[in-house]
């Protein structure tokens, strides 16, 4: 019984953390190149909807993943056009982008389900259902492949950013776009790539939410998860590994909230949902200067 | 006759010279384009664009109930717009209006539901509690910005969600209405609700408060030393420091002012419009304040844009009921004009045009 509970709890944590990990990576990659990716929430919604629609109409959840990548790229390109090429204020653009995505996704979904029937997407299945005695292998097979992809991406992005030459140049954009420009780098090109990659990863997070967890779409179904990812990046000090830890912690908060009543702990479940934000704010307040990449959020004019 | 023409011309040149003439043009342009986009989308949804527009505006402006609703929405939209605008002038992007509004309403509810005193006193105390809660909610991001250099954008976003979850915890916990099956506070007793003013007219008293505050903000930002400092700090901080302006004090003042207004909006909406705080009780007023502030550009602009947004918010329901175009389209309208506006403003085309103009 105890073991069963833990196995279910841990796989729930991983399930809740997977979308966060994708989105956090999307935010991190962008911020390292100097773009404050507030549009992560909107890209996530786009990915969630595209994944559901493509999976329903093709019958194959992996087509959903591909579709999410497609719209994520599109969203990233739009954001890149606005915040890198024009360049407009990144925060304001991101917030407006989120509102537009909320409107577009709700609208498109309403158009396509005229009868009011919920579309149920074929979900990505875990190799086996959670349960039984606990071992690492059980846990590994009880989560969807997307979780593994997310963990792999954490490692790959860490290697890229901190162990390769191009990664160093990438990070230099975030610290000082002007210095990077003076060193002969094309700031706008790299930032465009960053915005598109950020869009891709955020949309993948949305796909992980729908295909790996709740296999349908509802209006505003991300409910601020993109912003939790943003908090995770802050908490993780713009480092992929630490951001992953933060995502797991926040995922645990969410999984606990669902189980709070079952646990019989007298605490209101909403306090668990408050946890990520409070923990992050306390961490920011308690530890030194919480300054990320110095040029993140500053548009770099063309000319 | 000639004199009045000269006066009119002087007025126009004055508007153009203050610089917001051209931004206002852009804002209007982007809102018109967005309305057209709204029509296009409703066309795809199988509704006639003309009918959609008629339903939208009739649903918001025709009849006493609709008008009262629109004006009540306007209260929150104006105050939340100002809550973004004033700190923004000083270089602080207050994304946390929503959270400040939520805790403001919770605080006002706690006061109005527990006190037993004369009406004006309870209303005053409830609104004061709302303002205090808003200030409390912004104090964390503000201190982190001043002491730790943490970007206020992310910290206010986090405070938003923390405040919203706190509101949920309150309405399902200590403040829960025992007779209700979902999370909500009991309604504010009739005796403590904000009356309409003039009495019986259906015009929410909050509207006068919001309008007066907007006028006061316009005066403060355009005709006082503080307003000058505000712009100096926001547009060129090092220069402001060099000029001996107490930069951090000005910033703190502006941020506290903004958060107080967002908290006040929560209190006013509770006492004058929704009467209870519940799960999903508020529209995203605090969030929508951001587009309103950006498009409005100054307190009077916020008043105007806020009214348009209030019309759309109220009209959306009748639009969905009458034409079948989903009410969710309104979110599209809330975001799209900002994107168009920012895009146009940032584009080379605009800078060339504004140079040629003036």
Which ranges of chain B are low-confidence, i.e. pLDDT below 50, for 5 or more consecutive residues?
none
CATH architecture of chain B: Orthogonal Bundle
Share of β-strand residues of chain B: under 5%
Helix content class of chain A: over 70%
Structural shape of chain A: globular
> What's the order of the H and E elements of chain B?
HHHHHHHHHHHHHHH
Please state roughly what percent of the residues of chain A sit in beta strands, choosing from under 5%, 5-15%, 15-25%, 25-35%, 35-45% or over 45%. under 5%
Please tell me how large the radius of gyration of chain A is. Answer: 19 Å
Unreliable spans of chain A: none
Distance between the termini of chain A: 66 Å
Number of helices of chain B: 15
Proportion in helices of chain B: over 70%
* Strand segment tally of chain A: 0
Note the quaternary state here.
heterodimer
Based on the model shown, name its key terms.
heterodimer; A: 303 residues; mainly alpha; ABC transporter involved in vitamin B12 uptake, BtuC; 12 helices; 0% strand; B: 358 residues
Structure write-up:
The complex is a heterodimer of chains A (303) and B (358). With 303 residues, chain A is mostly helical. Chain A has a single domain (2-122, 142-286), classed as ABC transporter involved in vitamin B12 uptake, BtuC (Orthogonal Bundle), CATH 1.10.3470.10. Chain A contains twelve helices and no strands. In chain A, α2 (40-58) runs antiparallel to α3 (61-85) and α10 crosses α11. With 358 residues, chain B is mainly alpha-helical. Chain B has one domain (30-35, 46-352): ABC transporter involved in vitamin B12 uptake, BtuC. Chain B has helices at residues 2-17, 20-44, 49-61, 64-89, 97-114, 119-148, 152-172, 205-223, 225-235, 237-242, 247-274, 285-296, 299-323, 329-346, 348-357. The chains are: A mainly alpha (303), B mainly alpha (358).
């Amino acid at each position: 019984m105890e073991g069963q509970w833990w196995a279910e709890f841990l796989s729930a944590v991983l399930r809740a953390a997977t979308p966060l990990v994708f989105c956090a990576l999307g935010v991190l990659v962008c911020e390292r190149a100097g773009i404050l990716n507030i549009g992560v929430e909107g890209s996530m919604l786009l990915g969630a909807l595209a994944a559901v629609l493509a999976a329903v109409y093709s019958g194959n959840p992996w087509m959903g993943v591909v579709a999410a990548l497609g719209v994520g790229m599109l969203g990233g390109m739009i954001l890149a056009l606005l915040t890198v090429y024009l360049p407009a204020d990144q925060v304001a653009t991101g917030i407006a982008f989120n509102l537009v995505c909320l409107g577009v996704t709700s609208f498109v979904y309403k158009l396509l389900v005229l009868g009011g029937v919920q579309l149920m997407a074929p979900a990505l299945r875990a190799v086996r259902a959670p349960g039984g005695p606990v071992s690492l292998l059980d846990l590994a097979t009880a989560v969807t492949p997307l979780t593994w992809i997310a963990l792999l991406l954490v490692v790959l992005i860490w290697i890229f950013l901190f162990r390769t030459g191009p990664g160093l140049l990438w990070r230099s954009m975030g610290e000082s776009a002007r210095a990077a420009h003076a060193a002969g780098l094309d700031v706008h090109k790299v930032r465009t790539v960053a915005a598109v990659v950020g869009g891709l990863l955020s949309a993948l997070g949305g796909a992980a939410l729908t295909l790996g967890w709740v296999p349908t779409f509802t209006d505003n179904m991300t409910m601020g998860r993109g912003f939790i990812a943003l908090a995770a990046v802050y908490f993780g000090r713009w480092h992929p590994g630490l951001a992953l830890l933060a995502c797991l912690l926040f995922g645990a908060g969410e999984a606990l909230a669902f189980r709070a009543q079952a646990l019989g702990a007298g605490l209101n479940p909403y306090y668990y949902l408050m946890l990520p934000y409070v923990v992050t704010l306390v961490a920011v307040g308690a530890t030194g200067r919480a300054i990320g990449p110095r040029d993140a959020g500053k548009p770099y004019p063309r000319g | 006759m000639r004199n009045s023409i000269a006066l009119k011309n002087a007025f126009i040149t004055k508007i153009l010279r203050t610089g917001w003439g051209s931004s206002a043009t852009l804002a209007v342009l982007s809102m018109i384009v967005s309305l057209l986009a709204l029509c296009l989308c409703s066309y795809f949804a199988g509704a006639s664009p003309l009918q959609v527009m008629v339903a939208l505006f009739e649903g918001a402006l025709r009849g006493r109930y609709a008008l009262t609703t629109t004006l009540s929405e306007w209260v929150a939209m104006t105050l939340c717009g100002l809550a973004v605008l004033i700190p923004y002038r000083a270089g602080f992007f207050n994304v946390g209006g929503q959270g400040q509004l939520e805790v403001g309403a919770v605080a006002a509810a706690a006061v109005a539901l527990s006190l037993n005193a004369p009406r004006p006193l309870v209303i005053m105390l409830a609104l004061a509690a709302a303002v205090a809660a808003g200030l409390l909610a912004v104090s964390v991001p503000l201190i982190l910005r001043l002491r730790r250099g943490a970007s206020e954008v992310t910290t206010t976003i986090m405070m938003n969600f923390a405040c919203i979850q706190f509101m949920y915890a309150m309405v399902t916990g200590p403040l829960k209405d025992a007779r209700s099956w979902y999370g909500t506070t009991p309604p504010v007793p009739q005796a403590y609700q904000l009356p309409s003013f003039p009495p019986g007219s259906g015009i929410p008293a909050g509207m006068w408060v919001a309008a007066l505050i907007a006028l006061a903000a316009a005066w403060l930002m355009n005709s006082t030393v503080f307003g000058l400092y505000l712009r100096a700090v926001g547009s060129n901080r090092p220069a402001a420091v060099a000029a001996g302006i107490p930069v951090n004090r000005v910033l703190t003042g502006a941020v506290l002012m903004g958060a107080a207004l967002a908290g006040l909006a929560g209190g006013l909406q509770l006492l004058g419009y929704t009467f209870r705080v519940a799960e999903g009780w508020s529209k995203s007023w605090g969030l929508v304040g951001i587009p309103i502030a950006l498009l409005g550009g100054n307190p009077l602009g916020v008043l105007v844009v806020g009214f348009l947004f209030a019309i759309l918010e109220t009209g959306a329901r009748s639009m969905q009921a009458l034409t079948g175009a989903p009410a969710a389209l309104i979110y599209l309208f809330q975001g799209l004009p900002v994107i168009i506006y920012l895009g146009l403003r940032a584009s080379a085309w605009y800078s060339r045009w504004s140079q040629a103009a003036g």
